[in-house]
Amino acid sequence: MLLPSQIALFAVTSVVLILTPGPDILYVMTRGVAQGRGAALAAAAGFSLGNFVHLIFALIGLSALLASSAQAFQMVKYAGALYLVYLGVRLLRSPTGAVGGENLPLLRGRRIFLQSIVANILNPQVAVFFLAFFPQFVDVRQGSASLQMLSLGALFVVLTLICFSLVALCSGAVGTWLQSKPAVSGRLDRVGGGALVLLGLRLAWLTR
């Protein structure tokens, strides 16, 4: 069983790391500015729940494979980078103003949610992070290591969802304000698409 001191230290450290700028939180901000709160919250939920997949990977050893195999790491990294570039290009090619608006279709929200999960899974840095970070807070003297990892993983997902949702609400408010300005509303999709392409290229250039 995890000690309160373990949980407190893990929670504080996790919040700091979650709010550190990276492809995931920047993606949420981009969606919020380009499409509003609904899209940003869908992205926040997708990235948060995608962490469960990485937790499972860490428990069954796939993260260890990524950490030890340069080829496996590079393959997953480039797949994730290409996916972000693909999403950015689609947004760049969308009709001006088609993505904005207050009444965001439900299907689009689901699509963003699924895209965020895929983007999270295809980021090998998250997998290696789980493998390196979580064991630091596991004490085998306190019981099953796997159960402790699952507990910490669930807490991390909740903390990620809270932090990302706050970012989504703030960026969504900015996006809603910008969409009310005719001079800039038609360019939001272009800015958002360009940001996603840059995120993909940044991920592709990251070193192991």
Produce a short descriptive summary.
The chain has about 210 residues and is mostly helical.
Which radius of gyration do the C-alpha atoms yield? 18 Å
Order of SSEs, N→C? HHHHHHHHHH
Per DSSP E runs of 2 or more residues, the count of β-strands stands at 0
Low-confidence stretches: 96-107
User: Taking all residues together, what is the mean pLDDT?
Assistant: 76
Largest sheet: none
Which structural class is indicated by helix and strand composition? mainly alpha
Question: How many distinct domains?
Answer: 1
Mind explaining what this structure looks like?
The protein has 208 residues and is mainly α. The protein has one domain. Helix 5 packs antiparallel against helix 6. The longest helix has 35 residues. 39% of the residues are buried.
